[in-house]
């Protein structure tokens, strides 16, 4: 299974590199931004109905191959009663720190906020960049295992949102028990929800239609499924 997972990982990385260099990049990020913003507003609204406490959201500062979430990141940072965090690498894992400017460039070309001793009780929502996802809604990551280790330490499991520029979804099981599981998977042209994990669901039908249409009509490579 590990060899199969690594094979998918390399394929997805190559596809994201093509997307990164393509003319469609800004269009794809625009679609992702709209979908993510809509979902976040829905989740924040639901949180306000049940709690007066500020909502905590884990964002990320994007690499070139990842969806550029900086516009949303800075927008939600200015919102009241919303606490924004980003990862701060610590060895083979990371902790989270409040998103504050200026950022510093660290290992792997990742930009981080300054270290902080701020204690957080829980994260309500986590936005996680991903290479892809398997049928169990588990993450196919970049191979470092940092997100897996971090989420394993959390007592309260947040609502996880995977986001990817390509429709990198496989109907096979290629992940392991420790891999992070998602509640939502957002791509430019199809979004899936864990609670609707049925093949007759509209989102799955849409995804399968895109996959078939790509083969028949030679649609762009960012609509690939595997």
TrEMBL record:
InterPro entries: FTHF_cligase, FTHF_cligase-like_sf, NagB/RpiA_transferase-like. The keyword Metal-binding applies. Coiled coil: none annotated. Gene3D superfamilies: NagB/RpiA/CoA transferase-like (3.40.50.10420). GO terms for molecular function: 5-formyltetrahydrofolate cyclo-ligase activity. Its cofactor is Mg(2+). The keyword Metal-binding applies. Keywords: ATP-binding, Ligase, Magnesium, Metal-binding, Nucleotide-binding. Its EC number is 6.3.3.2. Belongs to the 5-formyltetrahydrofolate cyclo-ligase family. This is 5-formyltetrahydrofolate cyclo-ligase.
């Amino acid at each position: 299974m590990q060899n199969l997972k690594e094979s998918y990982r390399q394929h997805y990385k190559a596809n994201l590199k093509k997307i990164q260099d393509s003319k469609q990049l800004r269009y794809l990020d625009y679609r992702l931004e709209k979908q993510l913003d809509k979902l976040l507003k829905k989740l924040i609204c639901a949180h306000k109905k049940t709690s007066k406490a500020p909502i905590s959201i884990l964002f990320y500062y994007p690499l070139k191959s990842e969806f550029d979430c900086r516009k949303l990141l800075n927008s939600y940072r200015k919102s009241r009663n919303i606490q924004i965090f980003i990862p701060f690498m610590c060895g083979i894992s990371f902790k989270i720190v409040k998103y504050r400017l200026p950022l510093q460039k660290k290992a792997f070309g990742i930009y981080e906020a300054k270290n902080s001793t701020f204690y957080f009780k829980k994260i309500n929502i986590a936005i996680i960049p991903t290479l892809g996802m398997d049928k169990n809604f588990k993450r196919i990551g970049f191979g470092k295992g940092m997100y897996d280790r971090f989420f394993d330490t959390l007592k309260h499991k947040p609502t996880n949102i995977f986001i990817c520029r390509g429709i990198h979804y496989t109907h096979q099981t290629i992940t392991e028990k420790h891999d992070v599981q998602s509640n939502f998977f957002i791509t430019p042209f199809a979004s899936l929800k864990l609670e609707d994990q049925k093949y007759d669901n509209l989102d799955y039908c849409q995804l399968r239609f895109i996959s078939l249409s790509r083969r028949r009509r030679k649609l762009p490579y960012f609509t690939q499924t595997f």
